């Protein structure tokens, strides 16, 4: 068993110490499967921006893991050349937390939709932010359940008519931005697939940030949401840097987070770097690298010492 | 031929309002409308999704009035249904595959609280890997939990079993949740001509839901599900056990009453139906839409002079032990078709085979049994597949060996 672990370490070491480290381009991150999204879906823009951000940061596929739940957007890990895991509906952040603690040297990117993340996975959303787990969570927010063909979602605006709300939704939607700020996320941003370069920079900032980064992305559903369309957001979204904003001010962040009307801000709402991420609070991870790169278990010597101490 | 065929008597011609093309999901939605359900909780997952969409449409079109609540997950959805049922509202829910499993905690307590809502399960394979096609393990997961569980094979039966299901579940002698299962895609999304009963006829058949002394209401202050620890759990299990036993009789009553209103729609023993079995030597038995290719195969093999038949098992819980034992003892060999799996179980068979073999153990005359695993994950079970299964079962009648007891049908090797 030990021999197997050591062999594994040698193989990994060989990758890590490779002297030449070529810079990869977006093409290198193209997955083997083409997306099955509808033509014109906003999710294409998120996938493109994510690949661009990873390439710009000089990361390699083996240094990145994408993790998703269930939904149209949650198919993303199949469309990108990196480690990937397609998990259960709503569970992406739980799996991502496990992956992050097992290998905190990986860049963990959780992806999914508004129903997956804010509805069925709402509890994980809160607790992963509260713990400030070092990962980037990109939500492709189209304000509808698309894969099941158009039912109301937790971010559907009040009054929205869907297959499941024929008289209009009577419920208030979740606004993930103030929720994330209040819950303890340390990097909170909103992007729009119609602003690609801006989105790439937000994602890069999120990946580089040590702690929980939420990037809620307006990713319009061309098939089932005709209210919150590309055109809708194109007319209303304004960059926070153009409006004027200090993302280190809690009060300013909360004020901007509640703006929704003729002007809908996009950009970095909130960032703080003074809080430790969960893995930084774990003494076992403080030295010796990630758990994934260490032999696991207790050595016979350590076991013997422990038993003699206790017996 | 004992397949249920509508033979409405002349004075029963007005029990149907119209005939229209409906798929399984839409037929269930009409059943829910005709059962005058009070509270619907919904959360989308295919293939069940179309049931909630069809109900939403009925409400939007002004054909139906009910509370329609969109939950944030199946777990919440099932809890809403359960609690609605406890305040004496007729309640309806449904799901498929992993969604059904995600709400399992709520499904278990609905049964232990002895509440009688009806849930439709559009059978779907369990992830991983992601798959949408039919497998029966999702619905089967409640088989030991104190649920009523039955499968239908046509949209007509689907509609009718919403009414029949509530009739049985809500009976004072039963009060168990009702699982109405139907094969994903093959039934949920295939259209048939469906005779839609009139609201008057439905009302005539299905009495008002009355939880009586167990109704949670300001006028009837009770506690639901208090902590009782080891003091009373065993007695409650026994009550549930007795209810499941009593349900066998109530099921028969319900079908008879249904026939009284709608004509001779269903024939005894109701729990299952036999097709060309009168002089059969070898039969297949299965659940759900596999009945279609199996019946066609029977007709074709009969033309060649082979004495084969098919048994379609409708009710799985309670299991029709005595009736099925009597039925299957008549044959030389029985091939059990499992659209489910029970990995590592005795002889590596499927769930249905185990139930049937257990049911036959006390029989004086036991047929030979073989098991087929087929149609998993929505793979088609063709007429040729059914003929192959008959062929293998006929051979099993002649040999005395467990070799090749389980055959995987349509497997790529």
Provide keyphrases for this structure.
heterodimer, A: 311 residues, alpha/beta, Rossmann fold, 8-stranded mixed sheet, disordered N terminus, B: 413 residues, 2 domains, 13 helices, 15 strands, 38% helix
Structure description:
The complex is a heterodimer of chains A (311) and B (413). With 311 residues, chain A is of the alpha/beta class. Chain A has helices at residues 2-16, 43-56, 92-102, 114-120, 122-130, 176-183, 196-208, 230-236, 240-243, 250-257, 283-286, 300-310, and strands at 64-68, 83-86, 107-113, 135-141, 187-192, 212-218, 237-239, 264-271. Chain A has an eight-stranded mixed beta sheet with strand order 2-1-3-4-6-5-8-7, with helices on both faces. Chain B is of the alpha/beta class and 413 residues long. Chain B has 13 helices and 15 strands. Chain B has helices at 24-34, 49-60, 74-86, 97-102, 104-112, 137-140, 155-169, 199-205, 229-262, 291-303, 321-328, 351-360, 383-396, and strands at residues 16-23, 39-42, 67-70, 91-95, 118-123, 148-151, 178-183, 191-197, 272-275, 282-286, 308-313, 315-317, 333-338, 368-374, 406-409. In chain B, α1 crosses α2. The A-B interface holds A 70, 86, 88-90, 119-120, 122, 145, 147-149, 151-152, 154, 163-167 and B 42-46, 49, 52-53, 56-57, 59-60, 68, 70, 72-74, 98-99, 102, 127-128, 130.
